[in-house]
Amino acid sequence: MAYTFIFISGKMVQIYEQYQYTPRKTFKAVLEDFPGGPDTFYIVAKFCYNGRVELTPKNIITLYCAADYLEMTDIYGDDNLLSKTESYLHDSVLRQWKDCIVALQNAESVLNRVEKLQMLKKCLDALSVMACTDPSLFGWPMKMYGSLQSPGGSILWNGINTGARIRSSESDWWFEDVSYLSVNLFEKLIKAMQARGLRPESLVGAIIYYARKYLPGLSRWHGRQAGKPMKVLSFSLSSASVDQRVLLETIEKLLPLKKGKSFCRFLLGLLRVALILGVDKPCLDSLEKRIGMQLELATLDGLLIPSYSDSDTLYDTDCVERIIRHFMSLQSTVTAFSPASLDLEASPGSGPLKRVARLIDSYLAEVASDVNVKPRKIRSLAEAIPDSSRSLHDGLYRALDIYFKAHPHLSASEREELCNVIDYQKLSIDACAHASQNERLPLRVVLQVLFFEQMQLRTALAGCLHVLDTESALAGPVAAAAPVDTTGQIVQRDGWVTIVRENQVLKVDLENMRCRVGELEQEFSRIKEEMKKVTKSHHSNSAPRTIGQRIGCKLLPRASDARSDIVESISASPRASVELRRHSRHKKSVSLF
Predict the structure, then answer these.
(1) How far is CA 100 from the centre of its chain?
(2) Which of 428, 400, 239, 262 is nearest to 341 (CA)?
(3) Average of pLDDT values for 278-304?
(4) Exposure b/e, 503-532, CB count within 10 A at least 16 = b
(5) β-strand 160-165 against 154-157: which pairing, if any?
(6) Per CATH, which fold does 1-133 belong to?
(7) What are residue 71's DSSP bridge partners?
């Protein structure tokens, strides 16, 4: 019996031949790097001595490698161990999803040899094919269903086949299974599935599931999808032991160059974890570029990345600035996921640049309250987006107002430098009304706001007059041609006459307002001349309202003065109604923010 083991193994035959030519009575042979260790060798020995050997998905890979190592081919015996294990792999393991997963998980110790023998490629290809196939066609029960079922997919009730078929419309049934593989095997499987042509949405879903399982910090930033958690019903697996830094760097390489709202949120969460773990700089740079490619899909809470370095600031503004730079240089270079699998939630009439501009204005308003944020950083973030992307500068003005309130000790030059990023022609009427009475703004800025407010008012009046002239021209011929035959035609004519009379009254009022605008322009010119004199006399540090009163400038009224101004405006003057509207408008627009 002792010779049985020797003669069915090519390697043992070679060792025995060396022993024959050795003069010593005892001979010691060492099987270096034997696959599977002593447990696998014991099973091989049982096979050689006709013992009962059970092939299972857990031991099949190591036994196959051991048979190959010992050269147990059919040359040295019929139906030898190598052919038996190979037949079991192809006929059983590679046809069953769960068996293939178990076999791969237990192949970690012999992974290099398995890859060399092409068995790893066969297992990965088999899994890739089954991932694209209806899960009811192989192995049962499947985890995604959450209830027992027959091999054909019918629901079982007390062990009885009900005949009801389960609809398998979800494509994420395999995410839980592959998450038990090691990082190395998971990476190889994803690449095999990608080469097989599996949809990018499914691959990203599996990657996100795997990352959230082994990077607990991601669950805080990337919420768990609705639905019941998947449970292992058919077999028990132990979670893989992973290095989180290696895992994160591997996941970053596996992610496709796609864009989507949920995907962007996942990337922002991944970036936070990467900053905490201190991954390599190339990995951080790649994550920032990926986020920059789809910055228009990001949210404000996602961009508020805490500062994990030695910086004094609350948020990592440097990281956000780099992301904005990548967006400006890399936008339109990445495609989106299919519409069926992605919630873009983008307003149809808003371009990516305008959405990012609004997002950055909101971000500036959030970080402006941090007392450690420097003025140059605020200006750098504001100027990272081109001026043409902002149709209105109200958000930028609000952010600067919050910053001035949180930093009362800024010098006048620093305030003016920050105010230079605002285009006062793009402020709304309400924002202009607020800025004209904002004591935190430099005096020069207040005067500019007043000037552009007058320009906006003049433009609005010109537009109203043009509309009235057009309506009057159209109303005249219609009123003149109205016949007096029937009662309905007379009523129509009288209606047009009434409209024409009302338009004439409005034209008179608007002419009076036009005169008032001219007076304001003259008054503004006089203010500019007086300001030059005030500057020369070194009184520029006084409050804007004090200087305005000293040089005879009538700034916008305060809320406490509104009642007296209204009483004075109700007089015999033809501009009474117009002045009343003007004062009431300023009264309502004082507290915009």
Answers:
(1) 35
(2) 262
(3) 94
(4) beeeeeebebbeebbeebeeeeeebeebbe
(5) antiparallel
(6) Potassium Channel Kv1.1; Chain A (3.30.710)
(7) none
Q: What is the dihedral of CA 397, 401, 402, 403, to 10 degrees?
A: 100
pLDDT tens per residue, range 506-519: 777 777 777 877 77
Q: Which tokens belong to 25?
A: 């009575």
Please state the φ and ψ torsions of residue 220, each to the nearest 5 degrees: -75, -35
User: pLDDT band for position 369 (50/70/90)?
Assistant: very high
Q: How far apart (Å, rounded) are the C-alpha atoms in residues 287 and 255?
A: 10
- Based on the number of CB atoms within 10 Å of its own CB, is 158 exposed (0-12), middle (13-18) or buried (19 or more)? exposed
Domain boundaries defined on the chain: 1-133, 170-222+243-280
As separate numbers, helices (DSSP H) first and strands (DSSP E) second, the chain gives: 27, 4
- Per DSSP, helices labelled H in 294-373 are 300-303, 317-330, 352-367
- Summarize pLDDT for 52-91 with one digit per residue, the tens: 889 999 999 999 999 999 888 888 777 888 999 999 999 9
Tokens 């009264």 identify what position?
Answer: 587
Give the mean pLDDT of 365-394: 92
For residues 375 and 346, the answer to whether their CB atoms sit within 8 Å is no
Contact 464, 517 (CB under 8 A): no
Q: Which of 82-91, 268-277, 554-563 has the lowest mean pLDDT?
A: 554-563
CA–CA distance, 6 with 396 (Å, rounded to integer): 84
Show the CA angle centred on residue 128, arms to residues 125 and 134, nearest 5°.
130
**What letter does residue 170 receive in the DSSP assignment?**
-
Q: Which of 300, 420, 285 is nearest to 360 (CA)?
A: 300
Token representation of residue 463: 């537009």
pLDDT at 158: 46
Q: For the whole model, what pTM was predicted?
A: 0.69
Better-scored residue on pLDDT, 233 or 212: 212
At 548 the pLDDT is 47
**Backbone torsion region of residue 159, taken as left when φ is above 0, otherwise alpha when ψ lies between -120 and 50, otherwise beta:** left
Confidence category of residue 331, pLDDT binned at 50, 70, 90: low
pLDDT 10s digits, 146-171:
444 444 444 444 445 444 444 444 67
Report how far residue 37's alpha carbon sits from residue 123's, in angstroms, rounded to the nearest whole number: 22
For the chain, state the CA radius of gyration.
40
Looking at per-residue pLDDT, the higher value among 227 and 536 belongs to 536
Q: Outline where 306-411 has alpha helix (H).
A: 317-330, 352-367, 375-383, 394-406
Contact criterion met (CB below 8 Å) for 248 and 277 = yes
Please state the φ and ψ torsions of residue 156, each to the nearest 5 degrees. -100, 130
Question: Going by C-beta distance under 8 Å and a sequence separation of 6 or more, which residues neighbour residue 381?
Answer: 317, 320, 321, 324, 360, 363, 364
